[in-house]
Design brief:
By secondary structure, the chain is α+β, with helices and mostly antiparallel strands. The mean pLDDT is 96. The protein starts with a strand and ends with a strand. Helices cover 35% and strands 28% of the residues. The chain contains three helices and four strands; from the N terminus they run E-H-E-E-H-H-E. A four-stranded antiparallel beta sheet has the order 2-3-1-4.
């Protein structure tokens, strides 16, 4: 059964225009190399929060989410390690609008239901 990696980012809304430009390059580059199911950026529309005890995050809702499908955790960990060493990726990453813009990042590992 594949391993599904869900990445949720709370990126500084004041930097989102620059992030969108960067993501337009980074997303397709990653999709060509990995099984990226989707790479989504917030539309700016009002969010909804439901449940018996809804508790908003102090950072607000995640405004960037992407999902990657892996065969297993070993493949995932190896791919991320190799990414850090990839010269082409490092050129793309150098154009990122700033790591300090990430207010919070979360990574979850799921299996298909």
């Amino acid at each position: 059964m594949p391993l599904i990696e869900v990445r949720d980012y709370h990126y500084d809304p004041a930097r989102m225009d620059a992030y969108r430009i960067w993501a337009a390059e980074a997303g397709p580059w990653l999709r060509r190399r990995w099984d990226v199911s989707g790479f989504w950026i917030d539309t700016g529309q009002e969010d909804q929060l439901f449940g018996a005890d809804p508790q908003p995050s102090p950072h607000g809702p995640a405004n960037v989410t992407w999902i990657i499908r892996w065969d297993d955790r070993t493949q995932r960990d190896s791919a991320w390690e190799a990414l850090r060493e990839d010269p082409e990726w490092n050129e793309i990453w150098a154009r990122h609008p700033g790591f300090e813009g990430y207010r919070q990042l979360s990574v979850r590992f799921l299996e298909e239901a």
